[in-house]
Amino acid sequence: MSNSNLNQNYKGVFDNRLGFGKKPALLIVDFINAYTTVGSALFAPDVVTAVQNTVPLLQKAHDKHIPVVFTKVLYASNGRDGGIFVKKVPVLRTMVVGEPLAELVPELPPSEEDVVLVKQYASAFFGTSLAAALTAEGVDTLLLCGCSTSGCIRATAVDGLQHGFRVMVPEECVADRHSAPHQANLWDINSKYGDVVTLAETLTYLDNLPPA
Predict the structure, then answer these.
(1) What is the DSSP string of the chain?
(2) pLDDT tens-digit series, residues 105-140
(3) Terminal CA-to-CA distance of the chain, rounded, Å?
(4) What is the mean pLDDT of residues 35-57?
(5) Residue range 140-194, pLDDT digits in tens
(6) Active site includes 173?
(7) Which CATH class is domain 21-72+103-207?
(8) Domain boundaries along the sequence of the chain
(9) pTM of the predicted structure, to 2 decimals
């Protein structure tokens, strides 16, 4: 059954729009070299495109002086801080300090004002200070970019909603290994956990923010 048919069947039940709030933060989840380097076990061509699409959004966020948070995954060399997750996905054990594939992509360099959080699990909120940091900044809107749509983006969207944030997902700025889980999870995020928006809408929203 197509997404359009599903939307029609549940019209009026799901898909309510949250809309952008007054104080956004940009959250860029796990755009690391492992997903953009040809030959890497985690290489995903669509992530390369999503990274490129996020470049103007990061620049706009810096221009508007809104909070920007990056996440990356790192584990201890023995992998014991990865629990069951690294047993389920053993390739994650390679994400250790000093591994070039674990570093943030060069196309999206953090500024001195940005925050880089290390996480061990899918959600950017799980086991991190993210919720407290955003709350301290008065943030009500989360502009969520990164990968993968079906994993870390979905998990972060769910937790973002549960922490009281308006989760906005610019669809051009998220990606997955394959289009099927990408599209399915965008549909579900938009149905229940946040708003899937366009990059153009997001940039216009930032343009219209009052001066910081």
Answers:
(1) --HHHHHHHTBTTB-------SSEEEEEE--BGGGTSTT-TT--HHHHHHHHHHHHHHHHHHHHT--EEEEEE-B-TT-GGGTTHHHHSGGGGG-BTT-GGGSBPTTS---TT-EEEEESSSSSSTTSSHHHHHHHTT--EEEEEEE-IIIIIHHHHHHHHHTT-EEEEEGGGEE-SSHHHHHHHHHHHHHHT-EEE-HHHHHHHHHTSPP-
(2) 999 999 999 999 999 999 999 999 999 999 999 999
(3) 46
(4) 97
(5) 999 999 999 999 999 999 999 999 999 999 999 999 999 999 999 999 999 999 9
(6) no
(7) alpha beta
(8) 21-72+103-207
(9) 0.93
CA 120 to chain centroid, in Å, comes to 15
Annotated catalytic residue within 145, 147, 152, 173: 152
**Per the structure block, which two tokens stand in for 123?**
């959600």
- The whole-number pLDDT of residue 39 equals 96
Rounded CA-CA distance 62/67 in Å is 8
- Read off the amino acid at residue 54: T
